Amino acid sequence: MEKKGEVKSKSWLDQRLAVSDLWRIMMSEYYLPKNINFLWSFGVLTMVVFIILVITGIFLLMYYKPDANMAFDSVNKTIMMDVAYGWVFRHVHAVGASIMFLVLFIHMARGIYYGSFKPPRELVWITGFLLFVLMASTAFTGYLLPWGQMSYWAAQTITTLFEKIPFIGPDLVIWMRGNYIVEDATLTRFFALHVVFLPLLIIVVTAIHMYAVRIVGSNNEDGTTMTKEEKKEKGIPFWPVFIAKEFFVISVFLLFFFYLVFFNYKFAMDPINFEPANYLQTPLHIYPEWYFLAFYEVLRGFFFSETLGLIAFAISMFIILFLPWLDTSPIVSGKHRPLFRIAFWIFVLDFIALTILGKLPPSGLFAWMGLITSLIYFAFFLSLPIISKIERKQVESGGRQ
Questions:
Q1: Among 45-54, 213-222, 248-257, where is mean pLDDT lowest?
Q2: Which residue of 121, 148, 201, 218 is most buried, as measured by CB atoms within 10 A?
């Protein structure tokens, strides 16, 4: 009788929500190639970190005061000192925000190296890039909420950049801040974006991103395409085989994550930010969080022209979106692309160099190094059409694909 009731309940749900079909498409009959490595698990890790951020954010929301006069004390006194284990939730949230971008950068680098942006996966890449922009926006708006010195002046500096936009720039900045300077109105606006609007957008775009991946299938180390029949014969099902490996990677990751939370959390919490925001006292050196430093250095790298620096900053963030149209080589995976491999690793080292330079004073030798590394950053993307042309000729003449 219980089995009949169970079957009947499933049938009832299937008729209304197609639960079985959804489970089949997303889990049990979604096959992955066998020739993939642990880097393919970083997509799931981004979801794990996002869930951690949402849960800890809800707990922090219970005690946070989105008011310029109370925000700093609500974080550094109430949450850190008065609430039982409040410091744990704050540390987890702060470390989670930093680790989210570490995971995202690795996930994106894997996609670039193995050509996961190439046809028919352009929509996977576009939705993934949108998630990156939304995560960056969420991090930026959240960084202001503690209302510390670095939070305040980072927001003041970044919002000032929009003044350079022709015609609407000055009015746009005032509209964003709700005032002529970063003030209480700015804090409440950023708070609303951080806790409601942006997380909801992330959830929606994540669903579209996952659906797009399920439709076209995951890429693999060799970049070979597989039919549905080949996937069933040669691939492995996402549930329960691949997910078991994912659980192992998640477990190792969480050990690393909570080691940082309890023993090395200071990298995610700038000491200057433990001073209350003071709009009359500018810090000696203003810089954003580490995950924005590379793009910030591109902005500063063109030190001889503020307008050119702002244009370069905007392009440096959004040029990644156009990879499917810049890299048109018929060879998909970087494993079989010697020229691309060299360019890719130079790009990775250059991105690390930009991140390091972004926290150093932009003067003397550091200023010139910032300009050189910024030019190398753009050189990678400009080299892709040339590399694609060379590789296309190699393929046409009988080279390896």
A1: 213-222
A2: 148
Contacts of 144 (CB under 8 A, 6+ apart): 151, 152, 154, 155, 182, 186, 187, 190
- What pLDDT does 48 receive? 96
Q: What is the pTM of this model?
A: 0.91
Residue 51 CB contacts under 8 Å (≥ 6 apart), including other chains? none
DSSP state for residue 197 in the 8-state scheme: I
In this prediction, residues 113-139 reach a mean pLDDT of: 95
CB 258 within 8 A of CB 71: no
Closest CA relative to residue 91, chosen from 268, 336, 335: 268
Quick: pLDDT tens for 258-284.
Answer: 999 999 999 888 889 999 999 888 888
Is residue 104 a contact partner of residue 43, using CB atoms and an 8 Å limit?
A: no
Residue with token string 């500096």: 157
Phi and psi torsions of 116, nearest 5°:
-75, 0
Helix, strand, coil shares of the chain, percent, nearest 5, are: 75, 0, 25
The residue ranking higher by pLDDT, 73 or 37, is 73
Amino acid in the structure at residue 344: F
What pLDDT is attached to residue 4?
53
Q: From CA 228, how far away is CA 82, in angstroms rounded?
A: 57
Task: Answer for the pair 351, 294: CB distance below 8 angstroms, yes or no.
Answer: yes
Whether cis (ω within 30° of 0) applies to the bond prior to 66 is no
Half-sphere exposure of 2 (CA within 13 A, CB side): 0
pLDDT, mean over the chain: 90
Q: What pLDDT score does 199 carry?
A: 96
List, for residues 157-211, the tens digit of each pLDDT value.
889 888 888 888 899 999 999 999 999 999 999 999 999 999 999 999 999 999 8
Distances (CA, A) of 157 to 202, 306, 334: 26, 13, 38
Task: Give the DSSP H or E segment for 31.
Answer: strand 31-32
Total number of residues shown for the chain:
401
DSSP output for 331-357: ---GGG-HHHHHHHHHHHHHHHHHHHH
User: 389: how many CB neighbours lie within 10 A of its CB?
Assistant: 12
DSSP symbol at 277: P
Is residue 40 within 8 Å of residue 110, measured between CB atoms?
Answer: yes
Q: Please, are residues 178 and 185 in contact by the beta-carbon 8 Å criterion?
A: yes
